[in-house]
Write a structure and sequence with these properties.
Mean pLDDT: 95
Strand order of the largest sheet: 2-10-9-8-7-3-4
Distance between the termini: 50 Å
Number of strands: 14
CATH superfamily of the largest domain: Type I PLP-dependent aspartate aminotransferase-like (Major domain)
Largest sheet: 7 strands, mixed
Shape: globular
CATH class of the largest domain: Alpha Beta
Number of helices: 13
Radius of gyration: 21 Å
Strand content: 5-15%
CATH topology of the largest domain: Aspartate Aminotransferase, domain 2
Length: 402
């Protein structure tokens, strides 16, 4: 059977591939500490669960508007706007079954085949996958190491832009509070990205999945900078703040022409997002915030535990981020000391000797020319503090014994 050729361009969320290896190791009776997948093993706030149950009991189990129910669109417009110092209309909010669909629908809406889209690398692998699946030119901009973490290589980013012709650069995906690096832009870096977008007439997808997942400081949206409101699409997800990864609820918040186009794609793709799940989303935004506050406090405890244990490992170099729930240590020296020259082999050995499962830099986009150092990513959102300490203590013992 011959399948469509475009499927060869379709990638995957590579953390799930690591899950298969971890599950196979666990099936053989081994203990696994799952630092590889950014899931959250905390309960969704009870008031949201109760709102969903009420909606089901009230019969809200059929079709609803493709763009989402109006109470949720109104709540999202007010809440996201207030947090960013902006004003959005409910008609600019298009509800999605998760945050991830926003990526593909954004690309379908703004990019023609052959045109370029800039995206972060290392970065969320679905960016690259969707650009190439829809026939675009994937333009991976890189990061450089700094004393406090990572920064976008702005000169490299500028060098990728083509202004005219069929292969012109059309858009940029910008993930501040970044997965997998855990880093965020300085005000100067964010302004530089905005200046580049305006100069080259780029549409921006601001992936703000972790906008409210921070332990210090204050988040700022690139959409709030002068000249950016009308060219920026926000990716919003309920998965992180409300521990709703499996509920699949998110939204695109966009300039009206883009919002209208994404609504049309909703009609063609999934008809609508589940009505009773949207009812839970309304409660999450307008109801008690005790649940999200508790979730964030627990994630901060886990951040401190995970970073504290990794800091004890001689040769691990790991900034302590103020946001997200990822740590991205450099492991070059540890690997050299232990005789590993390939990061995948190091990860497999760690799993088999300690049960600690983690992703590597190679799971977040194709490594770029000239990359000399090795990195791995630890997601601490799915483990208790005790399990974090036990797992990473075991990892340290294994490393120190070799």
């Amino acid at each position: 059977m011959a399948l469509a050729e475009r499927l060869t361009n379709l990638g995957t969320e590579t953390a799930f591939a690591v899950s298969l290896a971890a599950a196979d190791w666990a099936s053989k009776g081994n203990r696994v500490f799952p630092f590889h997948l950014g899931d959250i093993n905390l309960p969704t706030p009870a008031n949201m669960v109760e709102a969903m149950n009420r909606a089901i009991a009230e019969g809200k189990t059929g079709y609803c508007p493709a763009a989402g129910i109006m109470p949720l669109r109104e709540a999202l417009a007010a809440d996201t706007g207030a947090r960013r110092g902006l004003t959005y209309s409910p008609t600019q909010v298009v509800v999605q079954p998760g945050g991830k669909p926003v990526i593909g629908k954004f690309i379908q809406t703004v990019m023609n085949p052959g045109e370029g889209v800039l995206y972060p690398n290392p970065g969320y692998p679905i960016y690259e996958s969707m650009i190439e699946y829809y026939g675009g030119q994937s333009l991976a901009y890189r990061y450089v190491q700094t004393d406090t973490g990572f920064a976008i290589d702005l000169d490299h980013l500028r060098s990728l832009i083509t202004r005219t012709g069929e292969r012109r650069t059309r858009a940029i995906i910008y993930n501040n509070l970044q997965n997998p690096l855990g880093c965020e832009s300085s005000p100067e870096e964010m302004q530089a990205i905005a200046d580049i977008a305006i100069e080259h007439d780029l549409v921006v997808l601001a992936d703000e999945a972790y906008f409210e997942m921070r332990y210090a400081g204050e988040s700022r949206s690139i959409a709030s900078l002068p000249g950016m409101y009308d060219r920026t699409v926000l990716l919003y997800t309920f998965s992180k703040k409300f521990a709703m990864t499996g509920w699949r609820l998110g939204a695109a918040i966009a300039p009206q022409p883009i919002a209208d186009s994404i609504t049309k794609l909703n009609t063609n793709d999934e008809s609508c997002t589940t009505h009773f799940v949207q009812a839970a989303g309304v409660e999450g935004i307008v109801g008690s915030q005790d649940g999200p506050t508790t979730i964030l406090a627990e994630l901060e405890r886990r951040r401190d535990a995970a970073w504290g244990e990794l800091a004890k490992i001689d040769g691990f170099v790991c900034p302590k981020p103020d946001a997200t729930f990822y740590l991205f240590p450099k492991v070059t020296d540890v690997m050299a000391r232990m005789g590993f020259d390939e990061v995948g082999a190091f990860a497999t050995a760690a799993l088999h000797h300690t049960g600690v499962s983690f992703c590597t830099r190679k799971h977040f986009g194709r490594p770029q020319p000239g990359e000399a150092d090795h990195f791995v990513r630890f997601a601490y959102s799915g483990l208790s503090v005790d399990d974090i300490q036990e797992g990473l203590s075991g990892l340290r013992s294994w490393i120190e014994s070799n």
